[in-house]
């Protein structure tokens, strides 16, 4: 396998960096078996966190040829059995750390070596660099980790730019996130939901500077400890922070034609007290143009034809801040309290041309000037306590966590419509003004407990309560010039929608090992209570449901140096986000309106996944196949309203969605200083709807390639590129696209500063994305042109002095809601 892999990698041009493992540098020589046994735990010298999958080798007293060896588990633990009696040396190594040699004398009695610390090879406790160099992508037993801070091309960008390069993740032309072919994905920040992401997700992802991101974690099969995540999985954005003794920080600035930003951080810890802060400000510009050609099939056998063209200069500005306070009175107790908030304002002036022909009474020809302004304000408050139980029970832990989030989203627009008898601006004939004030309050309480049994078995139990209160107060006023003296409230398009949701959950997971097998058996029980009402209507709806959600994982270790095979099954529930529920009618484009469906039911999904992983000193490989089935999938549906000559789009539990996929990830280091990484994904989607008597199928593919080369001691050149082939919805097929970028980073000021020049998608001003929607009533051809050419220059400076002493902390994860895509009116 090790000899064939580089040839396979070159043949497929597929080589993502997926693991930080290191295999033995020489072939182990079989040693005579004996009664001896060695065990221990490997940790990072600065952070005291376990070094997952570090390599452990038994060497003779003289010489460098290993007699035998293995790797640590996810807790940094190792055990070598059947060892001969005598004097030997134990070598411990891992990528990014200096090797450690321990003299050991093996006897007939088992020996516990205790905690063995490795020092990061790039660590400088007197300066600011505190970790060794990590690979860009790592594979862990339950997740894929993209170490964004190791990719120089991310400097000066946003989280949206990072996600486009994350394995298994794709962003479409409008910035909507997809994971392995589905947009049903929950995005967290530091393992917690954030009010920042509760509104327009595509816009929110452009608000977080890439310079503040440490890593992106992709979890395709979450355990029962997670909320009942839906069919896609979890994407966790890990922000940079430090809990080391001392003071450190950074400042950065970036300028370019698409975005500009300033950001800084300050971290300090003195004794048992610590503080971490972040502050950033930004401005971005994402202009676009779009066009629609729709042919409607009228009841009398004739056709109606709509032509619309829109141009927009979409620009936004805002800021983000965070403060975290920590108190560690002893090694067994840890308290944390934190808060973060953001403010975002978006202006999107638009020009619209509209022409409809086919129904004389409804034919139109006009232009519109539209002034759209959105403002989002949000904050999160978090508090937590974690209790550990020392070296005698290192895996026993109890935590209590609480979180409150508040999101306030103000969306408004005003339009002026001009008659255009000759496709030129005519007299002002109609005006419209709309305001939607949406709020989303969410309060969470959570407790988790882990009890070890023996050296390898653990029981995890926990409980959680989430209370969500959502409201959308929307009004619309109209003015017909020459017929009205002032604006008049539209009763049909003004209302207040209130929505409450309560989730009570409990879970239990038992993890145990049998020789080369490791098992995780878990179940989550969730009860959901929903109530909603409209202020201007007597109707009120309620919906309560109870779900049992099992989760099973079985892992087989094929070789001691890290070759594994894992089979997992999970059943998930996916509650619709407010974006899908909010009935507010977005009618800025008169012939195409969008609104939510407050009576949506949750999705129920089943996922089966088989994963194979292996690694060597210069390569790693991870391959997986999956099958996902959603029985009552929430799908977008478009219906043509004959009376108003318009296309109405909403959502419903309309289909059975079955998805099959294969994913291949690998990495290769051809020579010292050159890293290649890539991933290839292919999936087949089968959507079947009895309600619409419709079947939609499509095979899709996705691929990316990343390369990094060190040029001397102070330069790093990086390049990336990829493509996706598009996808399918129940009524719509949409095109894919390509992306690419180059960057050059120069290290300055004794490795305390970086200057990075980057360019993305520079061969053309922008890219065109096409979609076709086909229904019995009409065929719609859409074109969206996004301006993507981007160049930027970024500077980052790090300062301070760190002295070690960091501990891991628990955090809340709310990952149970089906999130909304970008664009459109949302309720919080």
UniProtKB/TrEMBL annotation:
Residues 393-797 form the Outer membrane protein beta-barrel domain. InterPro entries: Beta-barrel_TonB_sf, CarboxyPept-like_regulatory, OMP_b-brl_3, Plug_dom, Plug_dom_sf, TonB-dep_rcpt-like. Residues 806-818 have a biased composition (Basic and acidic residues). Residues 1-20 form the signal peptide. GO terms for cellular component: cell outer membrane. Belongs to the TonB-dependent receptor family. This is TonB-dependent receptor. It comes from Hymenobacter perfusus.
